[in-house]
């Protein structure tokens, strides 16, 4: 059930059999229906979610009630509001499945005990967050350097399947564009 | 010399005397003149820089030769191109001091040995990168949710000293605005 998670971890660190067993024994599995929520704003984010299948989106609700997608979680990606998770404070984010999804859940309540038993997990998460941080800085750079149209094409080139997979309005929200703008770009390309 | 660094680390993890001494013995100190470079694009980023005093900026050069600032490094902040650092690949970024600055330098060549001798540093960097990643997601959210003017005011409110400290064109680059636009906002506020 957690094979993809173990493989992901073992790309970064080595686990022995006892550690693998311990990890599997403390993770929780959840199958989330399409549009099902793993986190709602105002609640504490008490878990980290590793996407085994499907797709999650993390978003905030703006003053005008419009949803702003901050990131998507595809298989092999961790989603969490770290600030809320580490400080036990209400989150501003929602985490929702955009399609039927399966997640492996690491609860805040057991994290410290798990890390003390498998200290190399600190290294795993250090490397994961370092990469994610790096990617978000690259994204910030691209945001300013590229036009909306260039951003769309860059994204579509990097994630061709994904562009087909999520509704256009979600992609628009993620890229800071309007759905209408994406329609125009797609129509242009189709010509 | 490294007191601020040790204090920063000990906000997150405990170090014993031997660990403190080891850390201090392997860090390098550098005083960087205003406009001095710690990294130039095309070179491998072979160090992590902890800002002891002054201010660094990390930027890319866009196709039109315009500099896009990705982030500033104020005292207590680590600056590094992690991708270049971990993979020994040429960086796309430049890191330059915006004023006379002092940095504590952790070289890639000694990192693994240091982490094996002080494993809790993995935890320290895990927490640091988790926070930085979180902050960059918040920044991405603000970018889309706020107008340029709102972004400027939010930034000026959060970092009032800083707005006075760096040249207007750098602040504009960081916020994805033009220097002229910032002039207009400031003039409005002055009225």
Supply the CATH superfamily name of the largest domain in chain A: Jelly Rolls
Mean pLDDT across all amino acids of chain A: 91
Q: How many domains comprise the coordinates of chain A? A: 2
Distance between the first and last residues' Cα of chain A? 45 Å
| SSE series of chain A | HHEEEEEEHEEHHHHHH
Shape estimate of chain A: globular
Low-pLDDT runs of 5+ residues of chain A are: none
Annotated CATH architecture of the largest domain in chain A? Sandwich
Secondary structure: number of strands of chain A: 8
The percent range for strand residues of chain A is 15-25%
Structural class of chain A: alpha+beta
Oligomer: homodimer
Rg of Cα set of chain A = 18 Å
- Binned, the helix content of chain A reads 40-55%
Q: Give the number of helices of chain A.
A: 9
The largest interface is: A-B, 33 and 33 residues
Largest sheet of chain A: 4 strands, antiparallel
- What is the topology, as strand order, of the major beta sheet of chain A? 1-8-3-6
CATH class of the largest domain in chain A: Mainly Beta
What's the CATH topology name of the largest domain in chain A?
Jelly Rolls
Question: Summary?
Answer:
Chains A, B: InterPro entries: cNMP-bd_dom, cNMP-bd_dom_sf, RmlC-like_jellyroll. Two copies of one chain form a homodimer. Chain A is α+β, with helices and mostly antiparallel strands.
């Amino acid at each position: 059930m957690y094979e993809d998670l173990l493989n992901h971890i073992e790309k970064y660190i080595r686990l022995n059999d006892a550690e693998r067993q311990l990890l599997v024994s403390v993770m929780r599995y959840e199958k989330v229906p399409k549009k099902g929520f793993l986190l709602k704003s105002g609640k504490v984010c008490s878990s980290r979610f590793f996407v085994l299948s499907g797709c999650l989106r993390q978003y905030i609700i703006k003053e005008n009630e419009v949803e702003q997608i901050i990131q998507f979680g595809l298989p092999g990606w961790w989603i969490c509001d770290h600030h809320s998770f580490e400080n036990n404070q209400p989150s501003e984010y929602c985490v929702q499945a955009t399609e039927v999804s399966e997640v492996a859940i690491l609860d805040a309540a057991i994290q410290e005990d798990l890390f003390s038993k498998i200290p190399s997990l600190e290294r795993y998460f250090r490397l994961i967050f370092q990469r994610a941080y790096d990617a978000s800085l690259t994204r910030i750079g691209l945001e300013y350097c590229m036009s909306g149209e260039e951003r769309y094409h860059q994204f579509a080139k990097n994630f061709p399947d994904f562009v087909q997979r999520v509704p256009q309005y979600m992609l628009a929200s993620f890229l800071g564009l309007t759905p209408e703008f994406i329609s125009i770009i797609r129509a242009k390309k189709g010509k």
